[in-house]
Specification:
Helix content: 25-40%
Number of helices: 11
Shape: globular
Number of strands: 13
Distance between the termini: 22 Å
Order of helices and strands: EHEHEHEHEEHEHEHEEHEHEHHE
Structural class: alpha/beta
């Protein structure tokens, strides 16, 4: 049976095994997907062992997305632009890499939340790995204006410049205004606000003023569960529609599954099963440990 896994540190909390097991069940694919706890200083060795052991691919979560980027033999355009990788595929000793986080975000917003990004004003908060993975897919969705805001303006400017210089995005930037800005002095209001910063994970305050929200705006936090609760409460209190990143988790997994298995799983169904608690009541497999 083909083996896949998610590699991280920590990783026991990951919902990816139950998501991929359900995808396999619904699409009739024979595979086994588990978790792999890699030592903080042992990603390369754990990856080599995984490849040599005949695994077909893996997802990569914190803190190894940059190391996965460096380890790849071939990078997709999305991975090159993000300079971070969350999905690897192994074939004849070759490691192919992609970043499915951003397309998972866009698919959740447009398909599951029913909010079109075309022609809209979008604010993306955070120029770290999460924001970098989201930027190109957001541009591909055709917003009228996309503002990338970060605590360090220089980091936002560098990320925006890297995207503006990439040949695959030139045609997209003819219809979308891409701007970089600091969090201080951020003005204007937006149809869609996406929190890709570490503020929710760190339990910090909301990184922007409520003035950025248009009435009824979609306020999206890439975190899910308790970590996103404060952001979602803030959004609701100021007349926005809050949404957490559970759908993004499912949709990025669906993108990886489709790449690996060449069949598209019913991601909307699986998301509904998770939201209802039906799927999460299943027992997840115990994590493996890389030696």
């Amino acid at each position: 049976m083909d083996r896949y896994c998610v590699m991280g540190h920590p990783v026991a909390h990951s919902r990816s095994p139950m998501i991929h097991a359900r995808f396999a069940e619904l699409t009739g694919q024979a595979l086994h997907y588990d978790t792999l706890l890699a030592p903080l200083d042992g990603f390369a060795a754990a990856l080599a062992q995984l490849v040599q052991g005949g695994a077909r691919g893996c997802n990569v979560t914190v803190p190894f997305k940059l190391e996965a980027f460096a380890a790849a033999d071939h990078l997709s355009d999305r991975a090159q632009l993000a300079q971070a990788v969350n999905t690897l595929m192994f074939s004849a000793g070759r490691i192919d890499a992609d970043n499915t986080d951003g397309v998972g975000l866009v698919n959740d917003i447009q398909n599951n939340a029913g909010v079109s990004l075309a022609g809209r004003d979008v604010l993306l908060i955070g120029a770290g790995g999460a924001g970098a993975g989201a930027l190109a897919p957001l541009l591909a969705a055709g917003p009228r204006r996309l503002v990338l805001a970060n605590r360090s303006p220089a980091k936002a400017e560098a990320l925006a410049a890297r995207h503006a210089a990439h040949p695959s995005l030139h045609h997209l930037l003819q219809k979308t205004e891409l701007l970089a800005h600091g969090l201080i002095g951020l003005e204007g209001n937006f149809d869609v606000i996406i929190n890709a910063s570490a503020s929710s994970l760190a339990g910090a305050g909301i990184p922007v003023a409520a003035s950025v929200l248009k009435p009824g705006a979609l306020a999206y936090d890439m975190m899910y569960g308790p970590a996103a609760a404060n952001f979602m409460r803030w959004a609701a209190d100021h007349g926005a529609t809050p949404r957490d990143g559970l759908g993004m988790l499912v949709e990025q997994a669906a993108e990886a599954f489709t790449w690996w298995r060449k069949v598209r799983p019913p991601s909307a169904q699986v998301l509904a099963e998770m939201q209802s608690g039906w799927l999460t009541s299943r027992t997840a497999p115990a994590p493996a440990v890389a030696s």
